[in-house]
C-alpha cells in the first residue's frame, strides 16, 4: 500500500548496527527497506521490507535500488552500513585480501551511491549516510587495511557532499567507536601470517576484543544515524557515542607526540 512516508534503504540490515538502524528509522516514520546477502536467513523485522543485495556486485546493487523504486517510487535516505572487518599487520595482508575488503567497504558504497543518485537528484532531495568509524580519522596498528578503507570513505564522502549539495542531496558520515557487534569474530584474519608479528598481533586482538565487549550498544549508533537522516541542517560528520566524541577531540587537539604515544599505549606497543 502506498504511503507518503519517506523511504530509507539500509544495507547490511540483518544484524548489529544495520538492524538497529532499520528499526529506529521505522520508529522515526520511514518506510524502510533492509538488505542482506541472503534474506532467507534473516529474522523478519516489523516494518522492514528485506531485499537480497551483495554490494560487491554491480548487477545486485542496480537490482536492489530498482526494486525500491518499483515498490515505493522514491528513495530519500541511503544508509551504507554493509561492511567487513580485517585484522592483522599490514605486511600479513595480501593485496588480494585487501582488494576484497575494499570491494565491500569502499567500492560497495560507491556502487550504491551511483545507483541512488539519479533518483535523489530527480526528486531534488536525499541523504546518503556512509558508515565510517573512528578508524576513519585514527590509526589502528594491526588493522591498517581496514583503517585505510574507512579513511577512503571519509575522503570520498566529503568530496561527494560538495558535488551533490547543489541538487538538494547531502552525503554524510557517521563515525562509531567500538560497538557491541560481531565485528571482531567476523573480521578476516591475515592470509599471509608472519611469526614476527604474532605476539604483538595477539595482544592487539585482545585489546580490540575487550574494547568491543565494553563498547556502545548498536542502538546508540542507530540513534545517531536517524539524526543524520532527519536533522534540518545536517552536519557532515556525526560521532556516535561518547568514546567516538573523545577520540575526535584527542585527534584534533593533542600535540602529535602526545597523540602518537597514546595510540601506542592503547595498543600496548613498546616505546
From TrEMBL:
Q: What is the protein named?
A: Oxidoreductase
UniProt organism field: Streptomyces himalayensis subsp. aureolus
Which InterPro entries would you find in this protein's record? NAD(P)-bd_dom_sf, SDR_fam, SDR_oxidoreductase
- Identify a single GO molecular function assigned to this protein: oxidoreductase activity
Oxidoreductase recorded as keyword: yes
| Key words, A-Z | Oxidoreductase
- Organism domain of life: Bacteria
Q: Which family does it belong to?
A: Belongs to the short-chain dehydrogenases/reductases (SDR) family.
